[in-house]
Amino acid sequence: MLNVKISNLNLKSPLILASGVLGVSFHTMERVINAGAGAVTTKSIGPKPRKGYKNPSVIELYSGTFLNSVGLANPGVDQFCKELKKLHKSKFPLIASIFGDIEETYCKIAIKMEEIGCAAVELNISCPHAEVSSIGISSDLTYSLVKKIKSEISIPIFVKLNPNVTDIIEIALAAEKAGADAVVAINTVAAMVIDINTKRPILSHGSGGLSGKAIHPIAIKKVYDLYEALKIPIIGCGGVFDYKDVIEFFLAGASSVQIGTALYQGIEIITKIKNDLETYLRGNDYHSIMDIKGLAHEYKTQEVPDY
Ligand SMILES: Cc1cc2nc3c(=O)[nH]c(=O)nc-3n(C[C@H](O)[C@H](O)[C@H](O)COP(=O)(O)O)c2cc1C
Question: Over the stretch 159-192, which tens digit does the pLDDT of each residue have?
Fold first, then answer.
């Protein structure tokens, strides 16, 4: 009932751990799968260890809405691969989120991830508070990067889209044309908060990326628009807190969803969402969650207002 297929990945559940919100330990990833996720995405892994920005780097702005500028802190690809040697014995699909400075760096990391047994790579070209965002705002750079990596690896390539662009469709189409197997929509929304007493931005880096409840309707709109333009699957991401958020993403056209911020409430939230999804589908006589994919597009929206 909850099985989905993204490219050649058969997932037992449409719920995927989003990149960056949990650690990179194999044990944590296994726990997420046991809670009911169909796949896990790693924290974005770069060429070498990186500490990231100083604290404060993550703050809760409103209930369920966070602002972060972690700055792609990660152990680096070599250390990460050591941790993931255990992967060979595991049965779950691991999606390696990767970033680099230039195309060659992305390629080297992508090849290593394929070698250690990752099921797919997700290209982070969209972090709003790190250098990589410059790729994700250009359709030419996106096309070139995806095309190059596609020629080097045979596992599926997902492209994580940046919502902080004028035309997300243009970037997504460039990724699709270059051979991307799916897109993930969306990464965090560029944002800032300023302390009125110190009169300074609160995050050490100044600006950051907004995630959680506040960005859910933004993500829905992006997925809805992308569905009208793309042939490849869309993985919805942004503010999934319960089964209704997942259903909404599917109605907009998503083929699976990622969950990030909501996990601050505990990994068990995945089990609850999964159970509630099954209850919803059964109660509405659907055999598969894929039966509801894109249904919102059947509704003819009003184009011109009445006078
Ligand atoms: C603390 C934190 C760290 C994140 N780190 C990454 C990262 O390393 N790579 C990435 O592609 N996205 C990263 N993200 C973005 C999430 O994967 C996701 O796209 C975003 O938070 C929206 O989903 P959510 O509302 O479910 O959290 C991070 C988000 C948060 C809150």
Answer: 999 999 999 999 999 999 999 999 999 999 999 9
1-34 burial, b if ≥16 CB within 10 A, otherwise e? ebebebbebebbbbbbbbbbbbebebeebebbbe
Residues 20 and 97: beta-carbon distance below 8 Å: yes
Q: Which amino acid is at 60?
A: E
What is the token pair recorded at 19? 């990149």
d(CA 216, CA 261): 11
pTM of the model: 0.96
**In ligand 1, which atom is closest to the CA atom of 126?**
11
- Reference 109, options 21, 50, 168; nearest CA is 50
Q: Ligand 1 center to residue 31 CA distance, Å?
A: 19
The structure tokens listed for 67 are: 């602002």
Question: Domains in the chain, please, with CATH?
Answer: 4-52+72-193+211-298 (3.20.20.70)
